[in-house]
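Follow-up to my post from last week.
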Amino acid sequence: MTEYQPKYVNTVTKYVFVESPEMTPGDLAIRAYEISQGVMIKETCFGLQITGKEDEVNAIVDHLRKFDPAHIFVKDRGFPPGDSRRCRANLGGARPGYFGHEFEISLSRFISKGLVELPKRDALAEPKPPEPDGSAKLDAKKLRKIIESVET
Amino acid sequence: MVKVFIYPTTSLILSDLVARFGHTPLSAALQIREHIQTPGLESPPLQITPEDPKKGLKWAAVEVPSGVRGRMSLYGPMLEQAEAAIIIHDADFSFGCMGCARTNELIQFLLRKRGIPVLDLRYPRTEEEGIEFVAAIKKFLNELAGGGA
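User reply:
Got it. Predicted complex:
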């Protein structure tokens, strides 16, 4: 094992996803570059990756969100952009975490709809969220009944 | 503002909504970032060194596979910090590159054992469910200390 010297220490990286009929990742990148002041910004097919000091990154994210609040989604990323341990330029194929993003972005239109409709909703109305489906495991009592029915 | 554990821990939707409604999401990225920004031994790809499965012993017994213990060394500290949790149950992608089924079960067990507020959901499949999904998360977060942002 060799000694490990980390890069980009004391920085944060955030993903900014845009799934909007009115904005593209390119539009978002231009808006971000306007106020970036040395923060590293990488444009991607789904949006941006922003790397820098936490307060600077948060300021850019807050600024970008205002352009299309219901269609811009933000999350933290552990690795900086282009890291050879994760970047598909080195590994080939899709980056492992991309499958989760791909799945959730396909549902983001429902979330966007929710964010748009939320202010119009009665504040006192009780939400009825989609509840998880019941367990697919076989209930022990049911199994016992099956065994007994076969034995008799 | 409270720290909210999100499950799946890599969820974009939950991470965004928790931060949007004024709280701090506890996601896998925070622990990964800490690992890869700490000098030590070179151990790609996630900087999980042989020390991490030992740390995981705090949450999982020695008979448990090292993969579970290694993952618990990432998630365990977040479970202890969490003051609330939101769990989405039908996240197929959480089995595979993100983790393993046993780790996922252990995480949910430990969350419930702590007795903190937990919101159980599944992913919305229609626009109407999307509205209720967002409304439920907002209501849950508003009821936590410092909520209502």
